[in-house]
């Protein structure tokens, strides 16, 4: 779950400003960092370890941008044979295929490899199971 940061209106203060104001920094808005195009951004949760060598583990939250075009080496979510797959997009002799840790997904003639979106970032809950309680149980999960 990603919470949206609420923008606050800035107030102009008349009179003497605090000298400490020079050291104030803006708050980090994680959505601004992770989501470039909100209309084309979707979230999936990884449900296997088929991309472990690429740094993706089961349970990771994938941030996917559908407006991006896949290039060789990009991690993508593709729709193949009635199922979504998260794999590395590769090409060989001009033919695209998907590569995971132990498998390779190719389409035969007549089948279409539909790239659903490009994975732009991952979010992982690093808490040990003892601390995953209450609201913290849902950190980086859908």
TrEMBL record:
<dbReference type="InterPro" id="IPR036286">
    <property type="entry name" value="LexA/Signal_pep-like_sf"/>
</dbReference>
<protein>
    <recommendedName>
        <fullName>Peptidase S24/S26A/S26B/S26C domain-containing protein</fullName>
    </recommendedName>
</protein>
<dbReference type="InterPro" id="IPR015927">
    <property type="entry name" value="Peptidase_S24_S26A/B/C"/>
</dbReference>
<feature type="domain" description="Peptidase S24/S26A/S26B/S26C">
    <location>
        <begin position="15"/>
        <end position="119"/>
    </location>
</feature>
<dbReference type="Pfam" id="PF00717">
    <property type="entry name" value="Peptidase_S24"/>
</dbReference>
<dbReference type="InterPro" id="IPR039418">
    <property type="entry name" value="LexA-like"/>
</dbReference>
